[in-house]
Design a protein that fits this description.
Number of strands: 8
CATH class: Alpha Beta
Structural class: alpha/beta
Distance between the termini: 36 Å
Order of helices and strands: HEHEHEHEHEHEHEHEHHHHH
Shape: globular
CATH architecture: Alpha-Beta Barrel
CATH superfamily: Aldolase class I
Strand order of the largest sheet: 1-2-3-4-5-6-7-8
Number of helices: 13
CATH topology: TIM Barrel
Length: 306
């Protein structure tokens, strides 16, 4: 994408949050990552997100993240929009990666600065500093799991910053979703940050979703989204119910380790996680394998195992 106008025009639909496959020696499996990207593009996903929270960006150096950005943009080219997570606790790192992401033609995704006792005014100033660094604008990620939950009042203020293209909303509480959808819809692009419960935000008027579990279940999650997009709420509901057992285990065992285990069982390039996370193994992995076998037996899911 060459500028903010093109970014706004193309941003929407279902984005795959691609996990970062680490090899046994801790290096990034760049070839495996490329295969994962090609898989979802080939299936018809509208875009991808690289190096996000489930992409384990906190466990990577700034140089590794920059290399990841360059590699993926070389693989994707201009076929689909790419969100590139430039978040960080050090504003210098955020500035460097935000500028690089925009220069590469991706859309930088920036979280609030996760430091103690930061004020709303300081958060707004931070985003005003970051937005001009990228020729494609920035996407604000409201990520409660990192430590700061942006409330609707500050989100509305941030939406008026020049260069803010959209928000990826991780707080899926009903009241904030309702307010954001009705007050910000049409002003900025609205993305639901979780595929665990995206039916509600999409019905409320959000522009798209991002999905980590689609790394392991790309067919059924895409089918669910397309059904909802077509106005077939009953089919979307039934397909979403079909992979509830997967979501339940994801909540129990954590992400991205759960989705990587499931990917590996399908012969996909899930790879390993990095410390402080730990790969699933033993009885836990057996539990995941049993659940995946049950999904493979359901003709609605499209799941096959290696």
């Amino acid at each position: 994408m060459k500028d903010i106008a093109e970014c706004r025009a193309r941003l929407g639909g279902i984005f795959n949050i691609t996990v970062t496959p680490f090899a046994a020696d801790g290096s990034i499996d760049m070839a495996g990552l490329a295969r994962s990207v090609e898989r979802v593009i080939g299936l018809g996903y509208d875009g991808i997100l690289i190096g996000g929270t489930y992409g384990e960006f906190p466990a990577m150096s700034t140089q590794e993240r920059a290399d990841l950005f360059r590699h993926v943009m070389a693989v994707v080219g201009d076929r689909v929009p790419v969100m590139l997570c430039s978040a960080g606790s050090d504003a210098r790192t955020v500035r460097e990666l935000t500028s690089l992401a925009g220069d590469l033609g991706g859309l930088p995704m920036v979280t609030p600065p996760y430091v103690s006792e930061v004020t709303d005014g300081q958060i707004a100033a931070f985003f005003k500093d970051m937005a001009p660094l990228s020729k494609t604008g920035i996407l604000i990620y409201n990520a409660p799991g990192i430590g700061i939950t942006l409330q609707p009042d500050i989100i509305e203020e941030l939406a008026d910053i020049e260069g803010v293209v959209g928000i990826k909303q991780g707080d899926l509480s009903v009241t904030p979703i309702d307010r954001i959808a009705n007050r910000l819809g049409g002003r900025i692009k609205l993305f639901c940050a979780s595929d665990l419960a995206f039916l509600g935000p999409m019905m409320a008027g959000f522009d798209g979703i991002s999905s980590t579990n689609s790394c392991a279940l790309p067919e059924i999650i895409l089918g669910t989204f397309r059904a909802l997009e077509a106005g077939d709420a009953a089919t979307a509901r039934d397909l979403h119910r079909a992979w509830y057992a997967f979501r339940a285990l994801a909540r129990k065992h954590g992400q991205p380790q759960m989705v990587k285990a499931a990917m590996n069982l399908r012969g996909f390039d899930g790879g390993k996680v990095r410390s402080p996370l730990r790969d699933l193994e033993g009885p836990v992995l057996d539990e995941v394998a049993a659940m995946m076998s049950a999904l493979a037996a359901d003709p609605r899911t499209g799941v096959t195992l290696a």
